[in-house]
Design brief:
CATH superfamily of the largest domain: P-loop containing nucleotide triphosphate hydrolases
CATH topology of the largest domain: Rossmann fold
CATH class of the largest domain: Alpha Beta
Shape: globular
Distance between the termini: 47 Å
Helix content: 25-40%
Number of helices: 18
CATH architecture of the largest domain: 3-Layer(aba) Sandwich
Strand order of the largest sheet: 2-3-1-4-5-7-6
């Protein structure tokens, strides 16, 4: 069987050095590279080597004790954390690298939450124990307090820790009948269930402790993929190579051969090539089996989160909170430029590239300024496209605080569609949801599905700033079509007008992104921390105090706190610890200012209209939203409460 090991960490904890050493110790590479020498095996992109950080998740391949392993080295910088999250889904086990000098850092906590969310068995490697300032005991305590109380030193009373968590093991321990097989079986179950997290200490640069990690994984981690049943695989990465699209996936079950037909989102495709990668090198093969991490050609539309021969999974939690405008210095037509950017969007789906018709500019979603620098380099290197980006701005969203019925009618000459909707607020973070209460006597099933498709095919603009709508439940109540004059585009127009007409009647709410923060510093700084949070329009929980330090947690808007780590480091002389994690959207703290800055005019949006169009005497005419409800052709329905 094949086991996939993921390596994750806060930036500069030694993640890539650990991966390099592991590949060297297993003879997968002949020489060890170093980040500072710009010659590591998995950081193979010129930009990664120049910056000394991992930007792209890359995989290696090695064998150990007759078992095959895949190794995925993930980005540690927060700007590239979505790439890391996508890789988490295909890991059988994770190795979290924590520096024995710096301890648990901000991104470490983000990584940890993702691993727990996806229930990935985990081993912690406490790195840099040879460095000045390393404090193993203090960092282990910090790990147990901030990450998991079940984290224990592997080479220190490990059997005791296993016995404390399992009755069978405890009985054997008390009776003196403990043996290796019992320890292996019990610890395997505990680690799989995340009830036991081994901590192994070492120094990756010297090779100390690296093989201990591998031996621990080999003993206690059992792959779960199966060769039985039809072939299925999770798509976790898209790359382009010489204008050829490569789809990377992990096989979950069955066997796939070259020339086999597969299904993705209901469409059938033929696989034309299969590759097994090790760094930049690859081997073309005729088949892949469960457990393999592989690349394939022949899937022009598959995107990250799709499942081959299965149901897509795209519920990612790490999303951008910023957007930036792309300024292109080129004579190319805008469609050609968008095509290039769409390729990058396929590789990094969070970019959300779109043409802003209102401002005649290209905008995209980003995690931070480092990502923009990387995008500038890639566009120049791959497409010889010279671009600059404006300063990133906050990504706002809009929702409703009350409910309303919405009516849309679209009837220019030889067209006809009518849609009645009901909208109401959803719990925060739920997004847009849909239900159908329309009777088949009033509208065909095909037309109902078409209306639902139009609701989800794009982000819809709110009335306040034109920001995307979210956290709203939309119910289809009824509708009408004409057997001769209705086509699909008519229902798009009627649906959008009904949605917009409902928004005109509700209390609209502007939402902004929030951080969940954790600040730890000398107790003398507590007053400053609390004051700064209040000035940033945040809230905090009751402080946790020791004799020397204060821990402050809470929520704060991203807009007011993006630059705070620099301020915090300055007044704590670099001795404080700060963790900022995206914590969803909530009511904007300065709605009026944001609306004014946006300059959005709801009646001048070229993509949306609240009015309806009716037809009389062979000619279409417009009816404003506040008069449209009384002119609808369908009988009005009331919503059946959920």
């Amino acid at each position: 069987m094949i086991t996939t090991i993921g390596v994750l960490a806060h930036v500069d904890a030694g993640k890539t050095t650990f991966s390099e050493q592991l590949l060297y110790e297993t003879a997968a590479i002949k020489a060890r590279g170093r980040v500072d020498h710009q010659d590591t095996f998995l950081d193979n992109h010129a930009l990664e080597r120049a910056r000394g950080i991992t930007i792209f998740a890359e995989q290696g391949r090695f064998t150990y004790n007759d078992r095959t392993y895949h190794l995925i080295d993930t980005p540690g910088h927060v700007d590239f954390s979505p790439e890391m999250e996508r890789s988490v889904r295909v890991m059988d086990v994770a190795v979290v690298i924590i520096s024995a000098v710096e301890g648990v850092q901000g991104h470490t906590e983000t990584v940890w939450q993702l691993l727990r969310q996806h229930r990935v068995p985990t081993v912690i490697f406490l790195n840099k124990t040879d460095r000045e300032g390393a404090n193993i005991e203090a960092v282990v305590t910090q790990i147990q307090q901030l990450l998991c109380e079940d984290a224990v030193l592997y080479h220190h009373n490990f059997i005791d820790a296993v016995a404390e968590r399992d009755e069978q093991m405890l009985d054997a321990f008390l009776e003196g009948t403990v043996n290796d097989d019992l320890v292996t079986n019990v610890a395997t179950t505990l680690i799989k269930q995340q009830q036991l997290i081994p901590i192994i200490t070492g120094a990756a640069l010297r090779g100390e402790g690296v093989t201990d990690v591998l031996a621990c994984i080999h003993r206690f981690i059992q792959p779960t993929a199966t060769t039985e049943g039809p072939f299925t695989a999770d798509v976790f990465k898209i790359r382009h190579e010489h204008d050829q699209r490569l789809t990377f996936a992990k096989a979950r079950s069955g066997i796939l051969h070259v020339r086999d037909d597969v299904t993705v989102n209901g469409e059938s495709y033929k696989i034309t090539e299969l590759r097994l990668y090790n760094g930049t090198r690859f081997e073309s093969v005729q088949q892949v089996a469960c457990g393999e991490i592989f690349a394939m050609k022949g899937l022009p539309t598959a995107i990250v989160g799709d499942m081959i021969n299965g149901q897509a999974k795209r519920d990612f939690t790490l999303v951008p909170t910023l957007q930036a405008t792309c300024h292109v210095k080129s004579s190319l037509h805008i469609k050609e430029i968008l095509k290039m950017l769409r390729q990058l969007e396929a590789e990094e789906p969070t970019l959300r590239v779109f043409w802003q018709e209102r401002h005649q500019e290209i905008q995209l979603h980003v995690m931070g300024v480092i990502q923009l620098e990387v995008l500038t380099h890639i566009l120049q290197e791959r497409y010889q496209l010279d671009v600059t980006f404006g300063d990133p701005t906050i990504l706002y969203q809009e929702t409703c605080a009350t409910f309303a019925y919405g009516y849309g009618h679209f009837e220019p000459l030889k067209h006809y569609a009518e849609v009645h909707l009901h909208i109401e607020p959803n719990p925060r973070g739920t997004g847009i949801t849909f239900s159908n209460q329309c009777h088949a006597d009033h509208l065909s099933v095909g037309h109902m599905r078409l209306i639902e498709q139009h609701i989800f095919e794009r982000e819809h603009h709110g009335l306040l700033t034109g920001a995307p709508l979210t956290d709203m439940h939309i119910t289809l109540l009824t509708g009408a079509a004409h057997h001769q004059h209705t086509d699909g585009g008519d229902f798009r127009e009627a649906t959008i007008r009904a949605l917009r007409q409902a928004l005109e009647q509700v209390d609209n709410v502007l939402l902004e992104p929030f951080y969940r923060f954790r600040l730890r510093a000398d107790i003398d700084h507590l007053g400053r921390m609390m004051s700064d949070i209040q000035q940033a329009h945040g809230t905090f929980d009751a402080p946790i105090l020791t004799e020397t330090h204060a821990l402050l947690t809470g929520r704060v808007p991203v807009a007011t706190f993006m630059q705070y780590p620099i301020t915090f480091a300055a007044y704590t002389n670099g001795k404080g610890a700060i963790s900022l994690q995206f914590d969803g959207y909530d009511t904007c703290h300065n709605t009026a200012d944001v609306i004014e800055r946006s300059g959005y005019r709801k009646d001048a949006d070229p993509d949306y209209s609240s009015s309806s169009i009716f037809c009389a005497k062979g000619k279409g005419y417009t009816v404003p939203w506040h008069e449209a409800a009384d002119m609808m052709h369908c009988e009005k329905k009331t919503v059946q409460r959920r």
